[in-house]
Each structure stands twice: as C-alpha cells, then as structure tokens.
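Ticket #4471: structure export looks truncated?
Reporter: QA, pipeline team
Priority: medium

Steps to reproduce: submit the single chain below to the structure queue and open the exported record.
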Amino acid sequence: MSDLLVVDGVRRVFPVAGGTFEALKGIDIKVPEKSLTILKGRSGSGKTTLLNIISALDYPTEGSVTLDGGDITKMSESQREKIRRTHIGYIFQSVALIPVMSAYENVEYALRLANYKGDYKERVLEVLKMVGLSKRVSHMPEEMSGGEQQRVAIARAIAHKPKVIFADEPTGELDSATSLQVIGIFKELIKKEGITIVMTTHDPKIMEYGDCVFEILDGEIISSTFNNEKEGE
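Actual output as written to the record:
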C-alpha cells in the first residue's frame, strides 16, 4: 500500500516573549492511503499543530509535507487553497455547522465551495444516508443531538469526495457510545469511499481502531503502532 502523506523533518517554532518555543521537533511520519491514522497525545503535545501543517492550514518552520505526491510546503497559497477546497475535508471538535441551514443545506454548501461537478442532490442524500441521517435531512442543527450534528459534519467533509479528511478531536465532545459510532462511520467510509482519515485524539479507547497510531509528546513522535498489517502491505 502506498503512502498518501509523507512528513519529513517537520519543525514548528513560534515566537514567545523572550525567545522562541519549539512546538514540533523534527517529525517524520508516513500515512498509508485508505487508512485511519491517529495522532495521539495530551493537550499541548503538538498534535494539533502537526495536523494544521499536514492539512495545509499552516506552514512548518522547517521540513516538507508531501500530499499525494506534491510538496504542499512549497506551493503558493492559492495552490494550497485549491487543494483544501477540492482534495481535503475537515472535521473539527466544535462541529461548526451553519445554524440557519438544514442538514441538507450544510452539506450542499460544501459541494458549492468545492465546485463539485456531479449531481448535488444525489450526492447530498447519498452521504447523509452513509452517516445514518436519511430521516434528518431537513432538520436544523438545533433540532439534532451532538452526535447527529457531528454526523452532518462528517457528511459535509466527505461530500466532495476528498482524498483525505483531517479531523481534530472529532469525538472530544461526545459520550463513549457515540464516539465509537463515529469511529465506526469512519471505518466504513474508508472502505466505501476509499479515503484516508487522519485524526487527533487523547481518548485511549479509540486507539485500537486506528490502522496507524502515532503518539506525540512534547513535539516528538515517541511511539508508532501499526494494526491490520498496514505497514507490510
């Protein structure tokens, strides 16, 4: 199995009062395509900083990030924006649905932003069905539970058929049962849609479901775990 994402020597240094803070200290990881890859670490470990860099939301101070064969750290901002709109999906801990739009409209809006070429209605209904919300299409965010809102966010993230989804603590505000349902949806989407999902979490119950788990502490990878023989494929 080939690697969709290759991170080589990534450092991120931030200016602080009286000097600098090195948030990432030379990160090297490879993310296989069609995998659920987990960045594990407590608050302040550097996992969200890393996620922002590999998802083209931030630049590293040093190092390279190759996504689907292209080094995004060397691209112009307009090139990176195009990749974010067309090849990447984002899921955040705070669901960030548009409150005045229904589930259907939230997902359709994502298709418009990505300039999706297919049938909008067909695709919106398809992805809402994938996440188990066929009967909640016309509901507003305030009429849905936290778990249902996160499912809409997942549907919105996959609607334009991205190559990779980056999810920052997507289960952070959900109870254990709902968190496992979300992970189940992720695994099913990888199978059905052929996408790659990279997510951050500090929840130890979720680790066993990852194909690859990278543990980050103080800006460094301290362990790597590969399940389902991904590293040997």
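Status: closed, not a bug. The export was complete when the record was re-opened. Leaving a note from the reviewer for reference: Residues 176-193 form the longest helix (18 residues).
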